[in-house]
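Note to self: keep these together.
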Amino acid sequence: MQPPAPGEVGLEPIALDDLPSWSPWPARLVGFERAEKRDRTTEFVTREYNEEKYRPLLAMWKDSDQVTAPEIRAEEIGRDPESAVCISIGAELFRTTLREAGERFQALLWEHLGPRVSGGVGTIVELGCGWGYNLWRISERSPGPHLVGGEFSPRAVELGRSLSSGRENFRIEPFDFYESGYSIFDHVRGPAVVFTSHAVEQVADAERVIDSLMQRSHLIDCVYHFEPLPELYGDSLLGLMRRRYAELNDYNRNLLSTLRARTDIRLEVVGENVLGLNPLHPISIVRWSPA
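Structure:
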């Protein structure tokens, strides 16, 4: 069990038996409540993100030119930051605050990306960046690197560009994981650190993502995936629930096996189920480099 860290806020252990009091999903997964299987098509993702998620955030920005990135983020989350949530670390469940959960996630990103920034990397690229919140947080920690975000949702791109207006080293560009060759790398200066966070999960087959990245391998120092990896969930009760959750929501289920099968990359780090802001959908950490 990990001790409290980033914000020195304690973590109160939660028994697996108590998970149904924190989430409706256990009842759905065992069939006591209806759960329709999703088909994560381009149309579904467009509706869920461009229409339902980013339309009101963009409207908030347009209604007030004084709104800030933290205020946009607070509206995006839509809950009191001090409200209690259940998170996971490995196979353990904990009660903490929504604010602390978010800070733990940001600390995890910086733990891995920060040394690359300190080492002098020129560009950080986030694929599937939304309106750029993760990049904005990186820019607050270190204003040095050139930050490039790619996002599928036109409204998120418009919002991100508005929030980063006037910052020469920060840009948000249209991006599609299904695009070949990834033209976003036309904006990269020198070998870049590329990362994804809860983004490849939207892609049915990770092979095309890796193929497109490798077409730009000469511009890539390394790639981090902060993504759920159902291949690592295992056969415990919690693991089985996580696997079924991924299936019902049609999240990607072949990223790790795709990377392991490649001979043109070096798979350097695999950290298993490191943090789950949703305990049924935890991220693992993968780092790889072109061979």
